[in-house]
């Protein structure tokens, strides 16, 4: 029991860790690509105030690219947080002692006959494990 409990914990925790790390790495790469787009879309002298309150086409494209980059960066952070949390949680779980074995239920065949009576008559019911 101890070995299967530890193996299951390791597999699930390791899978969540790798999944979070994969999300973090993929979104970091996407954020870097979006950052290149932001650099290419800089307007005027490249200062952030060049598009302040401007609704022109280049400024709207720049604002969309910045929003996309910030979204990718936020999702990357969430992925890394999931990976770190899963790795720490799995490590702590593996340090705990294994759960105690469950007592096995007796599976001997048994039956119980119970009479019942009601306003419309009566009968006999049989309940059991076969």
Describe this structure in words.
The protein has 130 residues and is an alpha+beta fold. It has one domain. The chain has helices at residues 2-40, 57-95, and strands spanning 110-118, 121-129. Strands 1-2 form a two-stranded antiparallel sheet. β1 and β2 (121-129) form a beta hairpin. The longest helix is centred in the first third of the chain and has 39 residues, at 2-40.
Produce the secondary structure layout.
Elements: H1 2-40, H2 57-95, E1 110-118, E2 121-129
Antiparallel strand pairs: 1-2
Helix pairs in contact: 1-2
Transmembrane segments: 72-96
Keywords: Membrane, Transmembrane, Transmembrane helix
What are the key terms here?
two-stranded antiparallel sheet, 130 residues, 2 helices, 60% helix, alpha+beta, single chain, elongated
Q: In a few lines, what is going on in this structure?
A:
With 130 residues, the protein is α+β, with helices and mostly antiparallel strands. The protein has one domain (2-103).
What does the overall shape look like?
elongated
Number of alpha- plus pi-helical segments: 2
Number of domains: 1
Overall mean pLDDT: 83
Structural class: alpha+beta
What summary fits the major beta sheet?
Answer: 2 strands, antiparallel
Rg measurement, Å:
31 Å
How much helix is in the residues?
A: 55-70%
Distance N terminus to C terminus? 28 Å
* Largest sheet: spatial strand order: 1-2
Poorly predicted residue ranges: none
């Amino acid at each position: 029991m101890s070995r299967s409990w530890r193996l299951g914990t390791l597999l699930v925790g390791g899978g969540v860790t790798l999944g979070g790390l994969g999300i973090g790495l993929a979104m970091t790469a996407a954020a870097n690509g979006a950052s290149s787009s932001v650099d290419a879309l800089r307007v005027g002298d490249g200062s952030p105030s060049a598009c302040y309150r401007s609704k022109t086409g280049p400024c709207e494209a720049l604002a969309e690219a910045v929003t996309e980059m910030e979204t990718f960066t936020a999702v990357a952070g969430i992925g890394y947080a999931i990976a770190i949390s899963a790795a720490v949680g799995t490590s702590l779980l593996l340090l705990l002692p294994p759960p105690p074995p469950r007592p096995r239920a007796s599976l001997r065949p048994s039956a119980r006959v119970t009479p019942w009576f009601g306003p419309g008559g009566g009968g006999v019911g049989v309940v059991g494990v076969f």
